[in-house]
């Protein structure tokens, strides 16, 4: 799994990427990415960086893992939390 940080959102992705260059290609407003990480590493990172998000990080990551979706925006963030 990856965390993709763009100019407007933080996205969780299950898409397989050979390198960050392919992630840059997929996201026009790409800023940075982290991964590939395990679900637990993603949860730990989100809980540390965004402790007040609702739904909680664990719930959001587990929902993506169980779904057929390849990516979702992290919910519960406002602009100042990810555009710095």
Helix and strand topology:
Layout: E1 2-6, E2 10-13, H1 20-26, E3 30-34, H2 39-49, H3 57-66, E4 71-73, H4 79-82
Antiparallel strand pairs: 1-2, 1-3, 2-4
Helix pairs in contact: 2-3
Quick tags:
four-stranded antiparallel beta sheet; alpha+beta; 84 residues; 4 strands
Summarize the structure.
The protein is an alpha+beta fold. It contains 4 helices and 4 strands; from the N terminus they run ββαβααβα.
The biggest sheet amounts to: 4 strands, antiparallel
Radius of gyration: 12 Å
Number of helices: 4
So what's the overall shape?
globular
Low-confidence segments, given as residue ranges, are none
Helix content: 25-40%
Give the N-to-C terminal Cα separation: 23 Å
Mean pLDDT: 93
Q: Can you walk me through this structure?
A:
With 84 residues, the chain is an alpha+beta fold. The chain has four helices and four strands; from the N terminus they run ββαβααβα. The chain has helices spanning 20-26, 39-49, 57-66, 79-82, and strands spanning 2-6, 10-13, 30-34, 71-73. A four-stranded antiparallel β-sheet has the order 3-1-2-4, covered by helices on one side. A hairpin with a 3-residue loop joins strand 1 (2-6) and strand 2. Helix 2 runs antiparallel to helix 3. The longest helix has 11 residues, at 39-49. The mean pLDDT is 93.
